[in-house]
């Protein structure tokens, strides 16, 4: 990560990935080099996470420039943010709070980030806190993908829960799997079955290392049988998302696929990284000023509420976002009656 002073003429691009478990921020320079990053828990409060992240990144970038005036905070007067990209399940909220120029789905964001690291990547394995994805690329284009948002088995939250139940720090969970000499078979097709199978194996006297290794292999089998079924998993293969830090899961992928797995340096924030890269490319092409609201937006007051429209039989549930007492965005209606004139776009 670079820390050397920069001039005010330098342009940076901000990527934000708001997920159900984590909210991630990435700042890159014009060359696509990562300057700052932040991974924080969403905690069911995406607006709060966004504000905390903007404040942290603003301060970090002010220090990075080395030209923070006395009494000034968050780097607004020192950092030229040339574009902002938003992705993740909470991308609309991020777009409104931060003032995004580009809004993209997670599949595209992860693919762009992976291609920047490994230009000829063919397969992307991505496992996050609450869902998992596989992305197949051919000739630099997303050719096929699969996404699981229904079952928790194999996701970061499930592994966190099992580590807590066993009294093992999640950072050490994978190392237990690597010490296994004879992994037991765990039913990984469902989170409920996997947990009950683990308990049964514990009560039968199997050692913890073999149970954890069996769990990792069972969850990877489930991933490959469901998401990857019928898909050609060709090399180079990149594994990204928070679960890529789990050495047991990585080893299971290598064993079951019989292929090498690449773990990128910034595996945990690749969605935000991709959003920043997309924002850079779009804004350089459009050559216009960013809609970024500034790092000071972190200190505005926000409130969200739902409104049920009774105007027709659709009974749409409208989400309204307020900032400092004023509505800044609404969505959820089918006819456009409630929509505010907020520019939140899905770019092609």
Question: What this model shows, in words?
Answer:
This protein is 35% helix and 22% strand. By secondary structure, the chain is of the alpha/beta class. The protein folds into two domains: 11-108 and 272-299, Nucleotidyltransferase, domain 5, CATH 3.30.420.40; 120-263, Nucleotidyltransferase, domain 5 (2-Layer Sandwich), CATH 3.30.420.40. The chain has a five-stranded mixed beta sheet with strand order 3-2-1-4-5, with helices on both faces. A four-stranded mixed beta sheet has the order 8-7-6-9, covered by helices on one side. Strands 10-11-12 form a three-stranded antiparallel beta sheet, with no helix packed on it.
Relevant terms:
348 residues; 4-stranded mixed beta sheet; 5-stranded mixed beta sheet; alpha/beta; disordered N terminus; Nucleotidyltransferase, domain 5; disordered C terminus
Short description:
Helix content is about 35%, strand content about 20%.
DSSP summary, beta strand count: 12
Do you know the CATH topology of the largest domain? Nucleotidyltransferase, domain 5
**Would you tell me the structural class of the helices and strands?**
alpha/beta
Number of domains: 2
Roughly how much helix do the residues carry, as a percent range?
Answer: 25-40%
Distance between the termini: 31 Å
Unreliable runs: 1-8, 341-348
Radius of gyration in whole Å, from Cα?
22 Å
* Helix-strand pattern: EEEHEHEHEEEHHHHEHHEEE
Q: Based on the structure given, which CATH architecture of the largest domain is correct?
A: 2-Layer Sandwich
Strand content is 15-25%
Q: Sheet with the most strands?
A: 5 strands, mixed
